[in-house]
Amino acid sequence: MEEILRIQNLSKRYGDMPVLDHVDLSVKKGEVVVIVGPSGCGKSTFLRCMNALEEIQEGKVLLDGELINPCRGKLNLVRQRIGMVFQSYELFPHKTVLQNMTLAPVRVKKKDRREAEEEAREMLERVGLLSRKDSYPRQLSGGQKQRVAIVRALMMHPEVLLLDEITAALDPEMVREVLEVVIALAREGRTMVIVTHEMAFARAVADRMIFIDGGRIIEEGDPESFFEHPQTERLKKFLKSFSYSRE
């Protein structure tokens, strides 16, 4: 597969506090990369650096060979090409589902409103939410909001989709709803980088697993090797403690 996203020697600090320490990662087109690690290890910050939501002190992020972080003057274009879905949904509470989905395509991409609404309806039907197109976010469950947030990001036709802890606030039944949507996207060949603490979700959807601790990539591999045959003591300890926390 052809490489689409490359992170080289990336370092991020908040003041004197290092968060990411000379991290390298390559993502191929159509690949689903899942990042896990303990709280505070830099997972979400790493994701935010990928579409320039966070400035970096060293290194670079390239999309299809083009420098996107550090980047000046083209941030809106960068964020169209690399979409992001957050744990907190980020839906506009005063707009309906359909309005939330069509706002960016119409305003940013200057798409015809009727075309945008038609595409939005098609996407909502795919995730089982067409009947909620005129609902407001407050009228939706957490799982419904997250499905709307995912298809809203897809309305911009991003080359890479970043998903940051999208199941963290959901109960198990809602996690399954969202998982089914992400698995369907993976089967379509969507390129995704996902940060999560849900190990079952990670194992089900990943082509490649990444374990970060202390701002560094400690271990990576395919899901089977990663979970069944971890190579480092740090990953073994992490997986063991995680299983204890679920007992």
Beta-strand content estimate:
25-35%
Distance between the termini: 39 Å
Compute the number of strand runs: 10
Radius of gyration: 18 Å
This entry's quaternary arrangement is: single chain
Q: Uncertain regions: pLDDT < 50 for 5+ in a row? A: none
Tell me about the largest β-sheet.
6 strands, mixed
Order of helices and strands: EEEHEEHEHHHEHEHEEHH
The portion of residues assigned to helices is: 25-40%
Shape descriptor: globular
Structural class: alpha/beta
**Helix segment tally:** 9
Round the mean pLDDT to the nearest integer and report it: 92
**Main β-sheet, spatial strand arrangement:** 6-7-8-3-9-10
Which descriptors would you attach to this protein?
alpha/beta, 247 residues, six-stranded mixed β-sheet, four-stranded antiparallel β-sheet
Can you describe what's shown?
Helices cover 39% and strands 26% of the residues. The strands form two sheets. It has a six-stranded mixed sheet with strand order 6-7-8-3-9-10, with helices on both faces. The chain has a four-stranded antiparallel sheet with strand order 2-1-4-5, covered by helices on one side. The mean pLDDT is 92. With 247 residues, it is α/β, with parallel strands linked by helices. The radius of gyration is 18 Å and the shape is globular. Helix 3 (97-107) crosses helix 4, helix 3 (97-107) runs parallel beside helix 5 and helix 5 runs parallel beside helix 6 (172-187).
